[in-house]
Amino acid sequence: xxxxxxxxxxxxxxxxxxxxxxxxxxxxxxxxxxxxxxxxxxxxxxxxxxxxxxxxxxxxxxxxxxxxxxxxxxxxxxxxxxxxxxxxxxxx
Length: 92
Known about the structure:
This protein is an alpha+beta fold. The chain has helices at about 10-20, 35-50, 70-75, 80-90; strands spanning about 25-30, 60.
């Protein structure tokens, strides 16, 4: 697992090294799926470690809706633990 605390510069070396070890990738991003940082990370993986992958890259992102103000609706829009676990199980 890699927790990217710094996005600029993006630690592409660490990401590609992790892909070479695990051969699978699940990206969790609180941004929207469309036009998000997770898309850039996937592009870097495809360019630098495509042959290392044993399964397609999976993304768990915020729903493509405006983030609601109400807390319970915000929680429903953000990535949930269940969705992350399901994405990981789908790779095995």
